[in-house]
Write a structure and sequence with these properties.
The protein has 379 residues and is an alpha/beta fold. 37% of the residues lie in helices and 23% in strands. The protein has an eight-stranded mixed β-sheet, with helices on both faces. Strands 13, 14, 15, 16, 17 and 18 form a six-stranded antiparallel β-sheet that branches. The protein binds adenosine-5'-diphosphate and aspartyl phosphate (PHD). Aspartyl phosphate is lined by residues 19-20, 52-53, 58, 84-85, 146-147, 161-164.
């Protein structure tokens, strides 16, 4: 056993993630550093803190890139857009130094997360825990820019849009942590987006399967592959509000509530193809590129959930027949059951979600996890 391994075993390590919504102002860095410093002092833990860039910053990089080249190489997109998270990580590290804490930044190429070479939606293949262990040996806090990794040749790769959650769970698995604390501007997973749907309820316990289904269908709150990685490694995801004292709202683990959730993401797009066969082919291409996609069964339909895919460009490059815009998918999930309705655009998606949410959560509704959801198609 190396010295750093022995130390990592002696000291408990907590893994925390703070998304972009935690850094709306520059003052947020100092406030968070103060709270983290208190935790180090009071709990005697070392921390790995995964951070995202500030809200909108990743997309600002994308705009700048597109102004220079409308058709950039994936490797360049990955190299540039992940810098927003690097900036955030360095700002938090410097705020921690001001608090008198030892802290360092481990960027994707230093971290030990090795992916394939699908630069923009890379898949994790292997983790070397040694860089994290060594950094934890020398520092009270290790700050990790979310979404970053490297391929076998050491080239920077991106785990995809909103993938900081995935980084956090991968880091938790690497350091052997039993939990991963994910902080956001909501304290947990609700029965629908609480900023958009009236009456959305906090779900205290959510099963891995339900959380993964919700994010596959576009719920922004957690990254789908993060949920699956946590499930495989038996890591509990604890969702917390991003301001001290960081109250916990939901735990994602083996237990789950049977409440029906309605997934709304106005960036999701359903595409209709002339035949089922063409829809199957398009689905296979999106899926093969690691993009979150669902083959809807109610027709020759494919839903690209979560947005941030340049659909005309992607279809052109991959030589697939362009699908016709079919609306915004809104999906009800209960246990492992799903039912999707198509709304006529972003505005209509809000109304459809509210109606569906009211319907599935109506007083006296049958919440038997085995009851079919198909009746909701008429909601
Ligand atoms: N079912 C849901 N439960 C909670 N939040 C949801 C849900 N669906 C969508 N959201 C949205 O997810 C947002 C949090 O995700 P995100 O903006 O990526 O946060 P962060 O920047 O902290 O990672 C919330 O502000 C909320 O609007
Ligand atoms: N750079 C990432 C940041 C991220 O993952 O965001 P968040 O954790 O706030 O969803 C992105 O915009 O994709």
């Amino acid at each position: 056993m190396t010295g750093s391994e022995a130390t990592a075993h002696r000291r408990p390590v907590a893994v925390l993630k703070f998304g972009g919504s935690s850094f709306r102002t520059l003052a947020s860095y100092g406030q968070l550093a103060e709270a983290l410093s208190r935790r180090v002092a009071e709990d005697g833990t070392r921390l790995v803190v995964v951070v995202s860039g500030r809200p909108g910053e990743t997309e600002q990089f994308r705009e700048r890139l597109n102004q220079v080249n409308r058709h950039p190489e994936d490797e360049t997109v990955a190299g540039l857009l992940t810098l927003a998270d690097t900036v955030g990580a360095q700002l938090l590290a410097t705020a921690l130094h001001r608090e008198g804490r030892t802290a360092t930044v481990l960027a994707g190429h230093q971290l030990g997360l090795v992916t394939d070479s699908a630069f923009m939606w890379a898949r994790l293949e292997h983790t070397d825990p040694e860089p994290l262990r060594a950094a934890l040996h020398d520092n009270e806090v290790v700050v990790v820019p979310g979404g970053q990794a490297a391929d076998k040749q050491g080239r920077p790769t991106w785990l995809g849009k909103n993938s900081s959650d995935l980084s956090a769970v991968a880091v938790a698995a690497a350091v052997g942590a039993g939990a991963c604390e994910i902080h956001s501007d909501v304290d947990g997973i609700y029965s629908s987006d609480p900023h958009l749907v009236t009456g959305a309820q906090l779900l205290a316990e959510v099963s891995y399967n339900t959380a993964a289904l919700m994010s596959l269908y576009g719920a922004k709150v957690l990254h789908r592959r993060a949920v699956r990685l946590a499930q495989r490694n038996r890591i509990e995801i604890v969702c917390r509000y991003n301001r001290a004292p960081f109250p916990a709202g939901s735990v994602i683990g083996s237990a789950g509530s049977s409440v029906a959730a309605v997934v709304l993401n106005q960036r999701s797009t359903a595409l209709r193809y002339p035949t089922d066969e063409l829809a199957d082919q398009a689905f296979a291409v999106f899926h093969g590129a690691n993009i979150d996609v669902v083959r809807l069964t109610s027709g020759p339909l494919v839903a690209i959930t979560g947005g941030f895919v340049d659909l005309p460009e992607f279809q052109r490059r991959n030589g697939i027949v362009p699908g016709e815009y079919a609306g915004v998918p809104v999906t009800a999930v209960r246990g492992s059951q799903v039912a999707t309705k198509l709304a006529d655009g972003e505005e209509d998606a809000l109304h459809v979600s509210q109606r569906l949410h009211d319907y599935v959560n109506r007083p006296g509704a049958d919440v038997d996890p085995n009851a079919p959801l198909l009746e909701m198609q008429g909601a």
